[in-house]
TrEMBL record:
Catalytic activity: L-leucine(out) + L-arginine(in) = L-leucine(in) + L-arginine(out); L-histidine(out) + L-arginine(in) = L-histidine(in) + L-arginine(out); L-lysine(out) + L-arginine(in) = L-lysine(in) + L-arginine(out); L-cystine(out) + L-arginine(in) = L-cystine(in) + L-arginine(out)
Keyword Transmembrane: yes
Protein name (Swiss-Prot/TrEMBL): b(0,+)-type amino acid transporter 1
InterPro entries noted in UniProt: AA/rel_permease1, AminoAcid_Transporter
An example Gene Ontology CC term for this record: apical plasma membrane
Transmembrane stretches, start-end: 14-35, 47-70, 82-103, 133-156, 162-184, 239-261, 287-313, 333-352, 358-380, 392-414, 420-441
Keywords, comma-separated and alphabetical: Cell membrane, Disulfide bond, Membrane, Phosphoprotein, Transmembrane, Transmembrane helix, Transport
Organism: Seriola lalandi dorsalis
Gene Ontology MF, one: L-amino acid transmembrane transporter activity
Stated family: Belongs to the amino acid-polyamine-organocation (APC) superfamily.
Localization terms from the record: Apical cell membrane
Its membrane topology: Multi-pass membrane protein
Major site of localization recorded for this protein: membrane
Amino acid sequence: MDEKTQKLSLKRELGLVGAVSLIGGTMIGSGIFMSPQTVLSTIGSPGASLVVWACCGLLVIMASFCYAELGTVIRESGGEYIYILRTSGPVVAFMLIFSSVLFVRPAGVAGIALSFAQYVVAPFYIDCPPPVLLVKCVAAAAIITLAVVNCLNVRFSMSVQVFFMVAKVLALAVIIIGGVVMLIKGHTENFEDSFDNTNLGINPIGIAFYQGLWSYDGWNNLNYVTEELKRPEVNLPRAVVIAISLVTGLYLLVNVSYLTVMTPKELMSSSAVAVTWGNKVLGSWGWIMSVAAALSAFGSLNGTFFSGGRVCFVAAREGHMPDILSMAHVRRLTPSPALIFTTIVSLVVLIPGDFQSIVNFFSFTAWFFYAITLSGLLYLKIKKPELPRPYRVPIILPILVLIAAIFLVLAPIIDNPQIEYLYVTLFIFSGIIIYIPFIHYKLCPSLLTKLTVFLQLFLEVAPAEKNL
């Protein structure tokens, strides 16, 4: 027994600073450099777009408080997956992991890679939009590079993360300072009548929120690695508050800066906002913004890869994914099978997708499962009040966030039904069809066992339980 407990213990190595930069570093990705124009064009007026950004931040802070309580009650890594598994049962949890591994995670990776690519090629195509094929090839190259980095060495991929975190906070600081200088000089004309032409439909508000929340995606990253956090009951809520308030503040100031320098029309027609901003404020040094935005997206992509491997890993540990995905490289100790799998699926999603539609369907699926997770928290609060809770939120919080999540899932469908949403919903529920024969009745093991053995030898991996 002693041997076994030693084998399975994960080291708690993540302190408060590491936790904050894991959340912040994945949140500040490509979104803040890409989504402002979509939020503005969907909602219609500068004032309303700032309101949307602020509300997104508020919603994410409330949601992450609820997650902090979940993380201190259910102290396992794996985020939504493990919470749904413990509150709603294995079928719903499998639906989540099925759509997450085959669609949500890869779509996130593809979306970030596309915006990285747009920024890399933007300086070479100043007057016209860059060719789509070129953008997708650059995006694919970025995905493959990061897959290789993450397969080779965990420590290297974490130092990449820290380096890029510093780079993007500096980039955002440059944008904010530039904006403040312009405001002091008296460039306030874009803020007069700032609520004219606001679109107050259900659909525009929903879609604007999708695009805004895409920039906040990553707020729940810490919940994927709870088992490695020092004193989670103290550090989880703290890290969440620090990181998310910091990011919300930065985002609002950056948007004010964009709107100070550019008219709403210029902002909406720009394919890469930060580059347009750079060209107007920094003149011949405008290309710096392009580099900064690309670095930022690259760092966020790295973070997404890093935590994405965890979810696969936990699901395989619970028997919901093929065993091969819960294995790690013998010498390098990285979860290479899970990473290779994510890479392949991301490249497939990249082929047909464009940035806007990837974001909308990504957000739709993600918030669908956030809603289920939050109802799980309500269930725990009402039915199991006796569980030890070092950190608790008032019951009104999960209720408010749940209402917002339901609105975000239903709004675009009711107001402007698109056949794609039906496909996505069917895809989520098709997880059940796979669950019954393969997971519940464990059919077709012999073929899979042969394949697992072959892949184990080919990739030099072994079941990863030890975390020495």
